[in-house]
Amino acid sequence: MYLAYPVVFLTALALAAVCSPLADRLGYRWGIVDRPGGRRQHHGEVSRLGGIALYVAFIGALALSAFLPETWLPPRLDPKELTRLTGLILGVSFVFLAGLVDDRYELGPVPQLAIQLMASLIAIAFIIHIKHVNNPFTNQLLFGPQGLPSPLVWVVTIFWFMGMMTTVNWLDGLDGLAAGVAAILCALLALHMYREGQYSVVIQPLALLGATLGFLPFNFHPARVFMGSAGAYMLGFAMAALGIIGGAKVATVLLVMGLPIMDVAWLIWRRWRRGQAPTREGRDHLHFRLLDKGLTQRTIVLGYYAFSAGFGVLALVLGPRIYKVIALALLGILGGGVLWWANRESPAP
Question: What is the largest distance, in Å, between two alpha-carbon atoms of the chain?
Fold first, then answer.
């Protein structure tokens, strides 16, 4: 157990706890607040600059780790690790700043997609990409040791990053939902990396875990501050990147984020079938549908936590990849059942 682990985690936790009230005040001072109306049913104005607290905590903790004594730090075994860390920091910084612009001016779908695409290209430029894919039935690499062809690497990686940023952005609809699910994923990624001997990269999910847990008390229902687009984009990019940096823990990310990902796919298909723009705002997200069914915010959020944590633990305890495929299939069945029930029209009284 390296001393850098608790130092980085506690630093991020403290920074987020200190900066969250400041982000709350800045939102009111700059007029960047969410007001009730439409799909927003909270009471009164709420600052949406919580992304500032998440960003400062995450980057601040990572920056501190560069100044810790070498004896506190685990050795770096991968010569490309610093390159990927640089890409993580640059990518997170880019989406954070772009998200702040979105929080201030409420950009349309095209600029938002352009931001996600640019962030994906930053990741690829710093070799945070999906190059190798295992066949779960034979446990052998598809396309051999050379990995996926370059065009396919670009397509798969861009799809992965844009999909994760969209998923987290759409998940951020109830107080504490996105931040809590992100914390669960970070904790599981840190455990997974540590167990597999990837000691030096454990620092990165620990920093994000501290940031989300420090922010969560101010974001849990009733929220004092929202993370906004800056926080949602930052979490989505960081989670997508950590799933790759940590030795391709994509299956872990899919199991933890399975229900939100299914909701995004369901919404896109449903809106397309009805001739609606997939990117439009609405109350047809799963968490809103559950709210309309009569469940309380806390019940829904805790249910999401349990769902994500349960399948995330399966990613840790299941050894052979074929078992993870079975777990993903079970996730699909249970998640599909939840989506069907939530979208089922209630009978007329």
Answer: 68
| Distance separating alpha carbons of residues 139 and 88, to the nearest angstrom | 29
Model confidence at 180: pLDDT above 70: yes
Residue 27 has pLDDT above 90, yes or no: yes
pLDDT for residue 213 is more than 80: yes
**How much is the mean pLDDT over the chain?**
89
Reading the block at residue 192, the tokens are 């997974």
Give the Cα separation of 342 and 121 in Å (integer).
Answer: 36
DSSP string, 230-295: HHHHHHHHHHHHHHHHTT--HHHHHHHSHHHHHHHHHHHHHHHHTT--TT---S-SHHHHHHHTT-
Q: How many CB atoms lie within 10 A of CB 3?
A: 12
Strand 33-34 vs strand 140-141: parallel, antiparallel, or unpaired? unpaired
Spans of all domains in the chain: 4-249
What distance in Å separates the CA atoms of residue 204 and residue 165, rounded to the nearest whole number?
18
Structure tokens that stand for 28 in this block: 């009111």
30/165 Cα distance (integer angstroms) = 25
The answer to whether 261 and 254 are in contact (CB under 8 A) is: yes
Q: What H or E segment, with its residue span, contains residue 52? A: helix 50-65
Q: Which residue in the block uniquely carries the two structure tokens 């501050």?
A: 225
pLDDT at 196: 87
Neighbours of 277 (CB within 10 A): 10
Cα–Cα dist 329/293, whole Å:
26
Could you tell me if 53 and 59 are in contact, meaning their C-beta atoms sit under 8 angstroms apart?
no
Torsion-angle region of 42 (φ positive above 0: left; ψ -120 to 50: alpha; else: beta): beta
- So what's the pLDDT on residue 128? 95
What pTM does this model have?
Answer: 0.92
Give the list of residues 6+ apart from residue 196 with CB closer than 8 angstroms, or none. Answer: 247
Give the containing element (helix H, strand E) for 213. Answer: helix 203-219
